[in-house]
Structure formats: C-alpha cells, structure tokens
Fold this sequence. Notes:
By secondary structure, the chain is α+β, with helices and mostly antiparallel strands. The protein has 16 helices and eleven strands.
Amino acid sequence: MSSEEVRSAADAGGGAGRSGNVASSSVAPPPLSSGKQKQKATGVNRTWFIMSKAHQNDPGSVLKLLQKDPSLVDSRDYDNRTLLHMAAIYGWTDLAMFLLDHGADVNPQNRWNNTPLADAERGRKRSIIELLKSYGGLSLGHEGSHSEPIPPLLPNKRYWEIDPSEVELSSSKIIGKGSFGEILKAYWHGTCVAVKRILPSYSGDERVIREFRHEVDLLAKLRHPNIVQFLGAVTEKTPLMIITEYMEGGDLYQFLRKKGNLSPSRAIKFAIDIARGMAYLHNEPDVIVHRDLKPSNVLLVNSNAGHLKVGDFGLSKSIRVGNSNDVYRMTGETGSCRYMAPEVFLHRRYNKRVDVFSFAMILYQMLQGYTPYPLNSAYEATTLVSEGHRPSMNSQAFTPELQDLVKNCWAADMNARPSFLDILQRLEEMKNNMKKSA
Ligand SMILES: Nc1ncnc2c1ncn2[C@@H]1O[C@H](COP(=O)(O)OP(=O)(O)OP(=O)(O)O)[C@@H](O)[C@H]1O
C-alpha cells in the first residue's frame, strides 16, 4: 500500500482545523505530514510553507520564517504572487518594509500582471502605497479579481449561522435539483447567492440532517479561489439551507453541452482551475476527498468562462492522514457512476486519487466533446472502465502531452496516478509552451 493511502475520518477522529490552508506554491512541494517535519523543510517546502502562512493571513509567522531565512523574500505561489503582493493585499506594512529592506523586488507581477502597488491601491492600503512608492513601486495591472484579502476565520464556531429571514426567497428561482433538495438563486442582504434548500420532506430524516451538517462543517473550513465560497447556513431552523456565492456561468456540464469540445488551450485553462481547487482539498494532513467530482459540480464564475470553481461537497470526506498504511473503505456506492474510479465502483479500498481519476474523465470530456461512453448507460460505462477499458481519444484536441496526462490520471492502479500538484505543474508547462509557440 502506498504512503498516501488514508484512513476514514471516523477512525481518525475527523479532519479538523483547516483554516485557510493553501496548496499554492511556486514548486510542487512534497507532502508535509507533521509540524516537526515542517520545521525541517527543504528549500521547496520552505517556499510552500511560507506562502501558506501568508495565505492564512499570518504575518507574524511569515516574519519569523523570513528572519530565519531571508532568502525567502521573493517566494511565489502558483499565481505568481510574492510575499510583497500578500503584504500589499492585507496591509502588512512592517512585513513589507522588512521585505524591501532585504532586497525583495518592488515590482513583481502576478498571474494577472498586477504589481504589489496595484494591489495596495485596489485595497486602499494607504501606508503600503506610500511605502511602495518610496521604493520605486509602479502601479501595473489592476485587473486581478483574485487579490481581495480573505478575512481570517472567526474563533466562534457558529459565526456562519444565518437567520432565514435574511434570505430573500420570494423572488427566488430554482436553478438546480439535487438528491435531497433544490438549488435556488436568491438574495441575501441584496447580494445574489445560491441557496441549497433541503426539501421539507427530508427535514426530519436523520441521515439527511447528518449529511447536511457534515457538508456545512466541511464547507465552513474551506477558502480558496477555486472552491465555491460558503457564505453561511441555516442549521437551527427549517428549511435547512446552505448559502454559497452564486456562480453566474452555471455548471461545466451545461457549458460543454453547448460548446462541444474545447480547444487544448481552453481545456488546459479550465483543468488548471479544477486542479488548483483539488490540490487545496488534497493538502495533507487534512485531506478532503471530494468523491463526486464531475462536470455538473464544477461551476463557472461568469459567462466569460474565465474562472472555474469546484463545488458540491455533499459526498466529500474529511480525512486526517495518520497511519500511512491504512486506506479508506467505502461502505456504500458513492459519487456519480460515469466519472467514478473503478476501485470505488468495485467497493475496493481507495484513497484520494479517486478524485484524480474523475479529473481525467472531465479532462477527457472537455477535449473529446462528449461524456465517456455516451452511448452506454452510466452503469454500463463504469462497468467497462472497471474491466480495464478506457474511452478512445480521437479528437484533434488531444495533444500528445494531454493524452499522456489523461492516461496517467485514469491509470487502473490508483497509486500510479499523479497528485494534483504534479498535474498542475504539467498543465502550467503545457500552457507556457503554447504561449511560447503562439
Ligand atoms: N453556487 C451555485 N451557483 C450557480 N449554480 C449552482 C450553484 N450550486 C449549484 N448550482 C447548480 O445546481 C446544480 C446542482 O447543484 P449541486 O450538485 O450542488 O446539488 P446537490 O443537491 O448537492 O446535488 P447532488 O445530489 O447531485 O449531489 C449544479 O449542477 C448547478 O447547475
């Protein structure tokens, strides 16, 4: 069994304390499994670790790490944000001063071409603006929708409880249906939101309530640009509701139905967004296995389709990686058949790489233009896959690199599948090579 196999949340006492972990780093880090190991981190790990502290809005720890190792001043995350960007976004003047005094580049540009000064101006961080200008800061970019600071989690466990009267449902519209409820487009304090409302007929069903609470507990811990943002929940009154940001562009399934197959560059862009969200969920030691990754659970921020997020955590499991020899064994069939890894369908032991398999199926669909085995029922399709068959890749959009990636990700041996951090690196490389050859 591999070192990445995991045991169940119930066995391990659940996956606690995921307060803003990020999976972003300039280089894919080897997994960290304990606090002590973090201290002994390698160069690659140190970059990842310091960026994760910055993303957790923890300037104190960032400063301590920098004092120990000033060579980290120009560390970057996957979005090419430096510590100076983070200081500008959050308004950490002392930290910005330390960085600049220790030779940090004053005008690095992130993925959206924003410099720290542009970010500070967007957030109206006056003292940082002055500081950056005094060091020759230039205001370039300004287009980043991804640079807003994320407020730290409040210690109060139920800070997210919403009174149903706050949710304006009279003019709401049903936008989706799930197993136990419906998804509505509604308004919360004047803001358009998505409301997952449990149907009254299930409001007394203990199993449904347990699953609902589990989803709320899990969602409340998640904060990442590629994860649909949880805003609050109604758990003390009926109907039970989960309120998340509204994703104007709808889901990827509908999008692909309209568009057919995507160009390699667009599929890579979409795949990067999905892989980013998934790398965050799979971040050890508090691993979240989504278990139901499929196109209808990937949502588009708006109709420009420039930004995707992973949603629907109804079936996700929070798992604290403990004994590396244990695996999670599923008790019932879970997830959506057509995108499901064979080990799940066959009720075998599985680990977080089930999500990598589902990711391969989504990538396949984006490039091929239709679902895997469209002429077969979902059950037949999964049976074929469990017998070792894979759908043929005969669209022009499959570049050799994308073909290899899909093949690796749907490997029958779950331990042969790459991690989402590896996937991200490969996709980023493909993207850069395409840019160079354009
Ligand atoms: N935040 C959102 N913004 C816009 N549309 C959404 C949002 N959340 C869900 N939807 C729409 O509603 C559909 C169903 O949502 P979702 O899968 O979360 O429901 P569910 O009850 O968990 O379903 P299931 O029983 O399949 O798990 C999605 O495919 C999507 O089209």
